[in-house]
Amino acid sequence: MNICPLCNGLRKVTVYCNHCQQPMQDQGKVTDYFDDYSPYMDINMMKLVDGYPHTLANHECVHLFYCPYCRQEEVRFIKE
What we know:
Blueprint: E1 25-29, H1 43-47, E2 60-66, E3 73-79
Antiparallel strand pairs: 1-2, 2-3
C-alpha cells in the first residue's frame, strides 16, 4: 500500500515560489477542492478524475502549494 508522506504527516517538503522565491504553503490534495465531499472520498477513486491520468499508475499525490507573499499557486506531484 502506498501512502502520501505529506498527507500523513510523515515528511515536510519545502517548495519555493517560482515567481518570488519565497517558501510556499502546502494546501493539501488538489482533489480536496472539487466539492464539499471530496476530502472524504476514496483517494484512488479521486485520482481517476483529478485531471492527471498518470497519478494512479505512478503512485503520486497531487498537492496544491500557495505562496502567501505573491499569491501564486503551484501543483506538485508527491511520490507515495
